[in-house]
Every structure is written in C-alpha cells, then in structure tokens.
Design a protein that fits this description.
By secondary structure, the chain is an alpha/beta fold. The chain folds into two domains: 153 residues, Rossmann fold (3-Layer(aba) Sandwich); 77 residues. The chain is 35% helix and 18% strand. It contains eleven helices and nine strands. The chain has a six-stranded parallel beta sheet with strand order 3-2-1-7-8-9, with helices on both faces. A three-stranded antiparallel beta sheet has the order 5-4-6. The longest helix has 16 residues. It is elongated.
Amino acid sequence: MADTFPRDYTLSGLMEGESRITVITGSGIDVEAGLPSFRGEKGYYEDREAAYLASVDALHSEPVRQWRWYLNRFVSYHATPPAASHFALAELEVKSVENFLGIVTQNISGLHRKAGSQKVFEIHGCIHEMRSLKNGRRQPLPKSWIDSPPDDQELKAWRPNVCFIGESYDDYPLPESIEACRNCDVVLVIGTAGVIHTPVWLAEEGRISGAVVVNVNPNPGEVDKVSDHTFRGTASEYFNYNK
C-alpha cells in the first residue's frame, strides 16, 4: 500500500491540497465506534427479525413494535462516542473550509454531527429524530425517553426519522447529496460495501462529472468498480496512513 497509494489522496494530502471534497460514509466507519454494521459479519440484516423491523412493512403492520426496536437503538447510540475517524473528517472539514462540500452518510447514528461535522447529508435519516405522521414535522427525540420510555399512545402520532427498507428517498437529502458529488474534485468513499447501490451510484455521478473516486474499505466490494484509487484498509488505518 505504501508504494501504491497516492499521497495526494491521503488525509494530509487532501488537507494540504485545494481539491473540492465530498465524502460518502457507510457503516464501516461506525463499527470503529462499537456499533454493528448492517450486512457484514454480525450485522443487523443478518438477523431476519431486525431486517423486518427496519422495513416499511413493519411501519404499516407493527409500528409500535418497530418504534420499540428503534428506541432501544436510540438509547445505546446516545451513549456512543464518535471514533477517531469521525473526528478526522470533522478536522478535514475545518481545514478545507469552502472546499469541503459535505459528508453523505448512510448511517443513522448521528456520530458525524456529534464529532463536530457541520455539512452532513443523512440520506437514511437520523436515530435521534422523529417525524410527525400528520404533517411530516421533524423534531429531536426527547432526552427523557432514555431513562423513561414513552407509552404506546405517545408513539402513535410519530415515526422514527429513518429511511426504512423499501421506502423512497423523498423525505431525505438525496438531491443535495447528488449535487455535492457532481461538484467536487474528489469523492472519498469510506466503509461501505456498496450492497445498497446508492453510494456506488453517487460515486459514479462524481466520476462522470470529473471527480477522482477514492475508496477506503478493508474488503473488496461494489465500490471498487467505480474507484480510481482503493485503500485496502479500515477508516482508522487510512486516516493514520502517511500522516
């Protein structure tokens, strides 16, 4: 890796350069904070019940049961601090100023914002928010729910502000994400296998528009097919490489 990965696309190289940067992150970066992945080993979607509870079918059939499952995750995510890689991206944003076009994340953990990142497009929503079923209004989940879970009646007017399996991106910032990928010079893709095609498609949109696609992942995946450079390692290994 040391002989083949270009320094221009390391963290220090990007900080020193003048490229416009868009970052795409998947669950691999959150694994470093201790959260499960989705389709990897011991991932949520390896469990059929979890895959069902994360689906739009559960929203229609068992919304309260679905809520309880997401509330358990909300409680555990609330106590989870960001990993060093989340802080590294926040630092990259500060150093790059207007050249940093944003982080497009599949993750619902909120860890990028917790680490200090400001330009974050949460295309799958956020576990810390809920949305009104009546008018679509969003608001943070009450912190009081961490210690005192709400009763069923309190939940019925709301849903988690999370994009469920089988649901469209209509209520999430996909258009802004597309623009960020089309207008950058470098698309940095971190920790996504590309099983969900959206990050692959977004990276390809960037590449078609002239951006260099840099893929950071310890394992081969679909993103490899649209990448110009691949760092075969974890996010933390990438951020510590040639620093």
